[in-house]
Amino acid sequence: MKVLLFTHKSDIDGLGNLVLAKLSFDEVQYVLCRNRNELQEEVENYLKDNKLYEYDKIFITDLSLQEPTLTKIAQDNKLKDKIIICDHHESAIEEGLNKYDFSNIIVEKDNIKTCATTVFYDYLSKNNYLTKNKCLDRFTEMTRREDNYEFKKYNDQSSHDLAILFMALGPEKYTERVLEKIKSNEEFNLDEDDYSIINNRKKELKEKVLLFIKDMYIKEISNLKIGFIFIDYDARNEVSDYLINNNSKELDAVGMIALDNNQISFRALKEVNIRKIAESLGGGGHDKAAASPITSDQKQDLIKYLIDKNR
After folding, report:
1. pTM for this predicted structure
2. At what angle do helices 12-24 and 171-184 cross, to 10 degrees?
3. Which of 73, 197, 266, 298 has its CA 20 to 30 A from that of 256?
4. Is the pLDDT of residue 311 over 60?
5. What value does the mean pLDDT take over residues 155-170?
């Protein structure tokens, strides 16, 4: 079976789906996308070149197709039976992106928040592409806890450490390392070599966070007091963690501007909903953690702001 996967490239949830696809199918080609706008462009390019028809199955994970591409595929009798979307973002449901049978968007299951990896895992096992086991159960649950920021709730620091390992290694090496672990072990655990990489990365991130926070700009949006900071994308969770524990300015949320990933990541620091703000800027996500893309024009303006500020 010839398989094509489009998935989110920026976190372990997106990459968890690549791991599962490689375990399930002999031949997997994949496209890693930074956000749903990039996904839309990539799928449209494949449509224009008629390349989608070359595959037996097409999976889209941790991102959802937007209109008019979604309906275009639904009206194509060949493609609509080839494609499956596995996502978990509530914003996608609110936008009506789950209206077709191939749009498998599940926010909660048994009163537990899902992630795209758990949705895809259930789909693969239900359709006999992959057999569930203890090792995969643990890997997908660690991914779910990190993606929903629930590792503290479960006192499971290793789930967050898995994300730091991803930041240190990058998408390709992370995928290879996780696949090797799953194939050679009955249980999924981080080992001594992993923690050597993780601890070095934590030290680097701690130093970065303190530098980033020094130059915060505070703005009120929709009655929320938001601190805006220029950061490196891979430090976003550590920055928000630090501010949750050291919120001396009584901020409601933080907006982290990452020019290296063309994205603003929003995190709630109190019991507030920041998803609507991200959506107003063309993004989406969850109530407590969301993001919006930075356009080319915005990026130029932000770079100019940084240059002028540092003259």
Report:
1. 0.83
2. 50
3. 197
4. no
5. 94
Fold topology of 210-309: Diaminopimelate Epimerase; Chain A, domain 1 (3.10.310)
As a whole number of angstroms, the distance between CA 103 and CA 59 comes to 10
**What does the alpha-carbon distance between residue 4 and residue 29 come to, in Å, rounded to a whole number?**
5
As given in the structure block, the two tokens for residue 190 are 């981080």
- Three-state DSSP class for residue 253: strand
- Provide DSSP, 3-66: EEEEEE-SSHHHHHHHHHHHHH-SEEEEEEESSHHHHHHHHHHHHHTTGGGG-SEEEEESS---
**Distance of alpha carbon 109 from alpha carbon 268, whole angstroms:** 24
Element containing residue 219 per DSSP (H, E):
strand 217-221
Confidence grade of residue 306 (pLDDT, cut at 50, 70, 90):
low
CATH number for 2-140 (one of 1.20.1250, 3.40.50, 1.10.10, 2.60.120): it is 3.40.50
pLDDT band at 152 (very low <50, low <70, confident <90, very high): confident
**Across residues 195-211, what is the average pLDDT?**
91
pLDDT band at 284 (very low <50, low <70, confident <90, very high): confident
Q: Residue 180: exposed, middle, or buried by beta-carbon count in 10 A (0-12, 13-18, 19+)?
A: exposed
Domain ranges in the chain are: 2-140, 210-309
Instruction: Write down the pLDDT at residue 61.
Output: 98
Check for a shared fold between 2-140 and 210-309.
no
Cα–Cα dist 61/63, whole Å: 5
- My answer on whether omega of the bond before 68 falls inside 30° of 0, hence cis, is yes
